[in-house]
Every structure is written in C-alpha cells, then in structure tokens.
Automatic annotation (TrEMBL):
The lineage of its organism: Eukaryota, Metazoa, Ecdysozoa, Arthropoda, Hexapoda. GO terms for biological process: SCF-dependent proteasomal ubiquitin-dependent protein catabolic process. Residues 31-101 form the F-box/LRR-repeat protein 15-like leucin rich repeat domain. GO terms for cellular component: SCF ubiquitin ligase complex. It comes from Polypedilum vanderplanki. It holds the Pfam family DUF7885. InterPro entries: FBXL15_LRR, Leu-rich_rpt, Leu-rich_rpt_Cys-con_subtyp, LRR_dom_sf. This is F-box/LRR-repeat protein 15-like leucin rich repeat domain-containing protein.
Amino acid sequence: MPKLEELNLRACDNISDIGMAGLAEEGGCSIRSLDVSFCEKIGDQALQHLSQGLFHLKSLSLSSCQISDEGLEKLGKMHELEVLNVGQCSKITDKGLETLANELANLQSIDLYGCTKITSKGIDIIMKLPKLKSVNLGLWLVR
C-alpha cells in the first residue's frame, strides 16, 4: 500500500518492535500518522526502526507504550513530527523532554498525561518549543 498515509494499530496486542521494523522497511515512508497506543510490546527499539523509515511522520501516538528517554532520543531524527502523544509512558523523564525540545522544532502538540517522572524543569524546557500550541499535563503531579 504505497499510498497509505494513516495507520491505526491502537491496542493491537501482538504489535511489537519487530512489527515496526517491518513497517519501516516495507516502504512505510508515505505514512504521515501512526497510532500504536496501548500496544504493550512497543518499546524503545520500535522508535529506532520508525526513525529509520518513516521520515515524513507528522503524528505519532505512543500512549501507554514501554518507551523511555532512550526511545525519545531516536525520535530526534523525525524533524517533521508535529504531534506526539506519550501519555502514560511512565519511564519518560526531563532528559527525554530535553531531547525533544532540542530536536523537534516543528512539534505543535504533546500529550504528557500521566508522565509522573517529569518535573517542572522538564515542562519549562518543552514549553520553549517555538511552534508548541498544546500540552496535556493531566495527572502530571500525581505521585
């Protein structure tokens, strides 16, 4: 499907890092929007694969996936990314937000709902993104 622009795999139990490798290798480069939220087998390695094959991705939803700051570092290569949903990714810290702020100048919206390991320092850093219009911080301070 060379013209596929949107792919929603939300809550598909068997989608894993290996599946993302296949997607990136099989010409998924026309995909602009990908949702793998609530896919428990998606982790940092998936982001490595996506960053090597989905160069034109504008929207990425990873809510409740097993990603960490290490995975967010891989997203730094995805310069066209405008929307990033990482809500309920409990391993993300200020370090990951700093990477995003330094690399993703086109980011307009970020969902950090339930990311309880970030601090006000991380929020201050991400708020400096020049095009940022929307930030979801629900359940941020719940510890």
